[in-house]
Each structure stands twice: as structure tokens, then as C-alpha cells.
Design brief:
Helices cover about 35% and strands about 15% of the residues. The protein is an alpha+beta fold.
């Protein structure tokens, strides 16, 4: 005797009922499928929204072997993933006494290649409004900075008065060829 033999009458009745009331059957199916789809989509977005691991490491360090915090001087404990586990100072941070390049070379070796990455918050004028932005200054021609940013369109800056911007800046109303008034020497977006 088959395992489904007891289910046959119930499945026949259900099939007959579903075919007789197609609208109700479709409504029930939609009422079950939509919440499942919504929860599945939310789970995917939540799981993929935060960049971690190897992908995060390349975005933060490019092709370099390390990224060194140089905003001040303090004894620090650094987690394996500094972006998420953070830095924990052991005592007060002396912001007025940041390590010098010579001090870093003394620890890393004289042949160590250092590529400065300076991050700051500033604002630029767009018509009659001020737009707040985070600026990152780095030599994008240096092979160690490969992977920090991906060029989608336009070109890399070729002069000190040229900059690249991300999609968020373009969404705010800036365009290639515009000058960022109020940022340094009013650089041109390339």
C-alpha cells in the first residue's frame, strides 16, 4: 500500500475545491507567498548590506599590507577587523602628537612604502546651498591605492586641482566638469 493512499481522497477534494474557486485559491496563495517573499528579501538585504572580510579589507587598504591609524598617539588594542571591532585606547589619546613618517619607518623598516590617506569632513557650495561631504585625499596613481576606489566613468585626476566623486555626490546635483566651490582650491570634478 502506498504512503499517499490515505491522502488521495483529501487531495482530490482539495483539487476540486481549488479549481471551483480559482479566485479564492489565488488569493490564499498570494497571502502566503507575499509575507514569505518579504521576509526573504529583508533577510537578503540585511545579510548583504554590510561589507566585511576580504571585500572590506580591499576597500580599506587597497593593495597595501597594512593601514596605520595616525590621528594621535596612544597605546592601542586593535581588533582583527578594525572597522567593526574598532580600536581601543589604553589611556588618553594625545591628538597633538601624531607619529611622524620617520617614526613609522623606524618601526616598519626604511624600505616600507607609505601612501598617505587623509580623510576629512568639509562642505561645498552647490548653487545657493552648502552640501556636507566626506573628502578623502589619496594618490590614486599609486599601485598601493588600487582597490580603494573603482572608477565608473570619467577619468582619474591628473592635476592637484582635479577630483573624483562618488555616485552620492552626483545624486546631490554635482556633475563632471563642475567646480567644488569651498573645497581647497575649488577643484574640478573629472
Amino acid at each position: 500500500m502506498s504512503a499517499l493512499s490515505g491522502w488521495r481522497p483529501a487531495l482530490r477534494i482539495a483539487r476540486r475545491d481549488a479549481l471551483r474557486s480559482r479566485g479564492r485559491s489565488i488569493l490564499v496563495l498570494v497571502m502566503i507567498a507575499l509575507p514569505v517573499l518579504g521576509v526573504s528579501a529583508a533577510a537578503v538585504v540585511t545579510s548583504t548590506a554590510e561589507v566585511r572580510g576580504a571585500e572590506w579589507t580591499e576597500r580599506m587598504m587597497g593593495a597595501a599590507d597594512a593601514r596605520i591609524w595616525t590621528e594621535g598617539r596612544a597605546r592601542m588594542i586593535q581588533g582583527a577587523d578594525p572597522e567593526h571591532e574598532g580600536y581601543t585606547p589604553l589611556g588618553d589619546i594625545d591628538y597633538d602628537n601624531a607619529p611622524t613618517e620617520a617614526e613609522m619607518r623606524a618601526v616598519l623598516g626604511e624600505d616600507a612604502r607609505l601612501v598617505p590617506v587623509v580623510e576629512t569632513f568639509t562642505r561645498a557650495r552647490l548653487g545657493d546651498r552648502a552640501v556636507h561631504l566626506q573628502a578623502v585625499a589619496v594618490d590614486l596613481d599609486d599601485p598601493l591605492s588600487e582597490g580603494l576606489f573603482t572608477l565608473e566613468s570619467g577619468r582619474l585626476p591628473g592635476a592637484p586641482d582635479e577630483v573624483v566623486v562618488n555616485e552620492a555626490m552626483l545624486d546631490k546635483g554635482f556633475a563632471v566638469g563642475d567646480r567644488l566651490v569651498g573645497v581647497g582650491p575649488d577643484p574640478t570634478i573629472v
